[in-house]
């Protein structure tokens, strides 16, 4: 295939839209199938490992001898490096080429996983998560480039939608891995999966090479300064978002200091970029109304996905279910997300972008609202519809949002590519972390409120209280003979039941927050669209003389 690509003469319309991207050749059907397979491997490799760590973080923390709060640092490191990876990767692909850049990244990822397997520790785990975050950014782009080879040039918008959406399927797929396959021997199976996915991506990159790219000098000395400042700021922000609900926002002073330190670091980076002739990040562009609107919508959609990965899973875990018992639920989510990708690919047009984003917001709101009726007896089958709606809404949003951004890049020029890619990565990654932090904090606060209300409603003189305690005491009678000890144990069981009910009510409150925000965004978009249409109708038409 390499020789064929080198001898192929590209037509002007097959030229890549952006620097560092490969040409789009006219391939045989066999090659298109191979590129589709390669795109699938790259897409899964970009998110499968982190998805499995997120799904099993509580068990992993215990195996490593860490508190859950400490283990959440692994997620913060991954998100920080993934969100900022394309600060350097975009220009690296332009200057060194796709293959050379990804050889270095994938080689580092495989080496980090081997080190983690041979010498497991918090330090090696943090190193592996950092490199995994960078590699995920590169693999997501590789998935997109491979998909570009599957579709004809005239279908590039559909290719972009599918390419950027495929990595989202790794999230539900990661939760369908059986624990027995990845948990033995200190979770070495999990690290072997990540190593295998990196090796598979490396093999696909070499066996099914992409067409060439137009290379040239891209890096400037100030690029490194900006990257260091942004990565440092992002690490601090992600650490605060990831650990804040565990150490609590107002109880740990270092959380405030970390957040305060991130502001001058990020501010200095943006100041440097604003003064450069050829910046990495076009700061003033970020302040335009369209881009601010895009950021708001993108963060809200990630909040909806946090409802799925944090709140819904937390509710079911509270009911005593293990991750293996959630496989049918996430299989349903997987199918719904795939259906969302297919729907966008078949129906997306420029004039439908705003309408589809609005529809995605309403669908996410509906899914979250359905979950507000959950009880302590709720099980996965009752959540199939709501979680399918959330999954469908998430992927329904991604395609139109991507087309919105690409349209702005085409208008502004390819120099804005890094700015958009970093913005998109940040809203998706940091937005997801912020969503979990928000819902987690709401759940903690509302649990306290509901616990107090339930305790007040069920006072010691209440006949219902006496009846419940008597019922627990009767159940304990065959095992505990001492009446005093039996009464104390019965009171403890009632306290556990009240706490469980308070947690369920708190999760319902979190679902309500997601529903209200999503519906609010949908109504805002609908109102803005209606206003623009009325304004356009009221403007007098100009008749040429």
How would you portray this structure in words?
- The chain has 545 residues and is mostly helical.
- It has 3 domains: 1-217, MFS general substrate transporter like domains (Growth Hormone, Chain: A), CATH 1.20.1250.20; 221-277; 290-535, Growth Hormone, Chain: A.
- It is 79% helix and 0% strand.
- The chain has helices at 2-7, 29-55, 57-63, 68-84, 86-96, 98-118, 122-150, 156-165, 170-174, 179-182, 184-207, 221-247, 253-275, 283-286, 289-318, 327-347, 353-371, 380-412, 417-457, 463-476, 483-538.
- The radius of gyration is 26 Å and the shape is globular.
- The N and C termini lie far apart (61 Å).
- 46% of the residues are buried.
Topology of this protein?
Elements: H1 2-7, H2 29-55, H3 57-63, H4 68-84, H5 86-96, H6 98-118, H7 122-150, H8 156-165, H9 170-174, H10 179-182, H11 184-207, H12 221-247, H13 253-275, H14 283-286, H15 289-318, H16 327-347, H17 353-371, H18 380-412, H19 417-457, H20 463-476, H21 483-538
Helix pairs in contact: 2-7, 2-11, 3-4, 4-7, 4-12, 4-19, 5-6, 5-19, 6-7, 6-11, 7-8, 8-16, 8-18, 12-13, 12-19, 15-17, 15-18, 15-19, 15-21, 16-18, 17-18, 17-21, 19-21, 20-21
């Amino acid at each position: 295939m390499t020789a064929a690509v080198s001898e192929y003469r590209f037509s002007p319309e097959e030229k890549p839209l952006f620097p560092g991207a490969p040409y789009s050749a006219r391939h045989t059907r066999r090659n298109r199938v191979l590129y589709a397979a390669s795109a699938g491997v790259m897409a899964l490799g970009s998110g499968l490992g982190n998805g499995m760590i997120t799904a099993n973080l509580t068990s992993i923390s215990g195996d490593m001898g860490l508190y859950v709060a400490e283990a959440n640092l692994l997620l913060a490191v991954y998100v920080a490096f993934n969100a900022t990876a394309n600060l350097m990767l975009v220009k690296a692909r332009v200057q060194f080429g796709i293959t050379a850049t990804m050889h270095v990244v994938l080689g580092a990822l495989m080496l980090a996983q081997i080190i983690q397997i041979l010498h497991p520790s918090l330090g090696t785990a943090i190193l592996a998560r950092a490199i995994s975050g960078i590699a995920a950014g590169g693999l997501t782009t590789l998935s997109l480039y491979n998909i570009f080879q599957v579709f004809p040039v005239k279908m590039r918008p559909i290719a972009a939608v599918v390419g950027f959406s495929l990595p989202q399927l790794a999230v539900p797929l990661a939760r369908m891995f059986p624990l027995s396959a990845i948990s033995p021997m200190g979770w070495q199976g999990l690290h072997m999966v990540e190593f295998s996915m990196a090796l598979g991506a490396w093999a696909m990159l070499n066996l099914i090479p992409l067409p060439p790219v137009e290379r040239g000098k891209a890096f400037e000395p100030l690029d490194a300064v900006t990257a260091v400042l942004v990565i440092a700021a992002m690490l601090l922000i992600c650490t605060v978002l990831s650990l804040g609900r565990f150490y609590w926002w107002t109880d740990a002073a270092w959380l405030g200091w970390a957040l305060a330190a991130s502001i001058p670091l990020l501010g200095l980076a943006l100041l440097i970029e604003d003064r450069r002739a050829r910046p990495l990040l076009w700061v003033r562009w970020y302040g335009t109304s369209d881009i601010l609107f895009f950021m708001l919508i993108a963060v809200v959609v990630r909040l909806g996905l946090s409802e799925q990965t944090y709140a819904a899973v937390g509710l079911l875990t509270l009911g005593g279910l293990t991750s293996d018992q959630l496989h049918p639920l996430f299989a349903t989510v997987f199918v719904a997300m795939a259906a969302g990708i297919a729907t966008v690919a078949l129906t997306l047009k420029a004039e439908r972008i705003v309408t589809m984003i609005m529809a995605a917001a309403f669908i996410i709101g509906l899914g979250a609202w359905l979950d507000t009726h959950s009880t302590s007896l709720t099980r996965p089958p009752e959540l199939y519809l709501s979680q399918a709606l959330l999954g469908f809404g998430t992927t329904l949003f991604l395609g139109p949002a991507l087309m919105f951004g690409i349209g702005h890049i085409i208008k502004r020029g390819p120099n804005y590519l890094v700015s958009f890619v970093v913005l998109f990565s940040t809203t998706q990654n940091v937005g997801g972390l912020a969503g979990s932090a928000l819902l987690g904090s709401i759940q903690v606060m509302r649990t306290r409120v509901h616990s107090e209300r339930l305790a007040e409603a069920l006072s010691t003189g209440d006949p219902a209280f006496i009846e419940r305690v008597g019922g627990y005491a009767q159940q304990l009678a065959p095992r505990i003979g001492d009446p005093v000890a039996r009464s104390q144990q019965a009171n403890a069981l009632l306290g556990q039941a009240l706490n469980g009910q308070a947690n369920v009510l708190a999760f319902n409150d979190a679902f309500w927050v997601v529903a209200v925000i999503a519906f609010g965004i949908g109504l805002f978009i609908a109102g803005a669209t209606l206003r623009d249409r009325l304004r356009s109708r009221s403007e007098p038409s100009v008749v040429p003389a």
